[in-house]
Structure formats: structure tokens, C-alpha cells
């Protein structure tokens, strides 16, 4: 059983110029550094899975979980389409620290910023 990592916020962003890439999800250096830091304390885990679940008042929500292996079904089409062009960032301020998903495809978010629809 995987444990959830941390809280994440969803933000709708305006359309950006597409850059050729093979990745559905890009990570900022800040997000990469935070994931490396989190995994340093969990040597039995090989990475973090980013997923999408149906929940929340607006339909969908991102999930983050530690993983010990990469399975064949880890790149499911539903998650790929929902993550397409999304940037995952990690931000810290005086009151909080969290992963933030900047997704130009989002049409709406809930008031608390934890769920979205496409």
C-alpha cells in the first residue's frame, strides 16, 4: 500500500506556446529537488507516481504516491490526457509548502483549489 505524500494545489493557466516534448508532465527544478529529498528518506521506494482520480466538488484531483516499482500500467491514457502540457512545481512560503500543478487545459477549479475539470 502506498502512502500519500503531501498536499497539492491545482491552478488553471492561460494557453502557452507548445514546445516539442515527449513528456505529458514536466517538473520544475524545485519539484525535482523536493522529490529527491523525499525519496532520500525512503530507500525502498524508486519514485513517485502522479495520478488522477475522480473526486472533489469539481470532478478530478491529482494524487501523489510513493512507489516501489514501475508497473506496465503506470502510463494509463486517462492520466496522460489529463496531465498533457501540465507543469508540476514545488513552492514554499511562510505558511505552507506544496506541489502545484499548472495545467493550461483546465476549464474550472473548485474553491479550495484541490479539484478541477477539463
Write structural notes for this entry.
The model has no long low-confidence stretch (mean pLDDT 77). This protein is α/β, with parallel strands linked by helices and 118 residues long. The chain is 16% helix and 36% strand. The protein has a single domain, classed as Hypothetical Protein Aq_1857, Chain: A, CATH 2.60.300.12.
Brief write-up:
Residues 25-114 form the Core domain. The chain has 118 residues and is of the alpha/beta class. The protein has helices at residues 29-40, 77-83, and strands spanning 8-12, 25-27, 47-54, 60-67, 86-92, 97-103, 108-109, 116-117.
The profile of the biggest β sheet is: 4 strands, mixed
| Total count of domains | 1
Write down how many β-strands occur, each being a DSSP E stretch of 2 or more residues.
Answer: 8
Mean pLDDT figure: 77
Question: Which second-level CATH architecture applies?
Answer: Sandwich
Order of strands in the sheet with the most strands? 1-6-5-2
CATH class: Mainly Beta
Could you state the order of secondary-structure elements as H and E? EEHEEHEEEE
The parts where pLDDT drops under 50 for at least 5 residues are none
Helicity level, as a percent range?
10-25%
| Quaternary status | single chain
What is the CA-based Rg, rounded?
A: 14 Å
CATH superfamily: HesB-like domain
| CATH topological fold name | Hypothetical Protein Aq_1857, Chain: A
Structural class: alpha/beta
Amino acid at each position: 500500500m502506498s502512502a500519500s505524500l503531501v498536499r497539492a494545489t491545482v491552478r488553471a493557466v492561460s494557453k502557452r506556446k507548445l514546445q516539442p516534448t515527449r513528456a505529458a508532465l514536466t517538473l520544475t527544478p524545485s519539484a525535482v529537488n523536493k522529490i529527491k529529498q523525499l525519496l532520500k528518506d525512503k530507500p525502498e521506494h524508486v519514485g513517485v507516481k502522479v495520478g488522477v482520480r475522480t473526486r472533489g466538488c469539481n470532478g478530478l484531483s491529482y494524487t501523489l504516491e510513493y512507489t516501489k516499482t514501475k508497473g506496465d500500467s503506470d502510463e494509463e491514457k486517462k492520466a496522460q490526457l489529463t496531465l498533457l502540457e501540465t507543469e508540476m512545481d514545488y513552492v514554499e512560503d511562510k505558511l505552507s509548502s506544496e506541489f502545484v500543478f499548472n495545467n493550461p487545459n483546465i476549464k474550472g477549479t473548485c474553491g479550495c483549489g484541490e479539484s478541477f475539470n477539463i
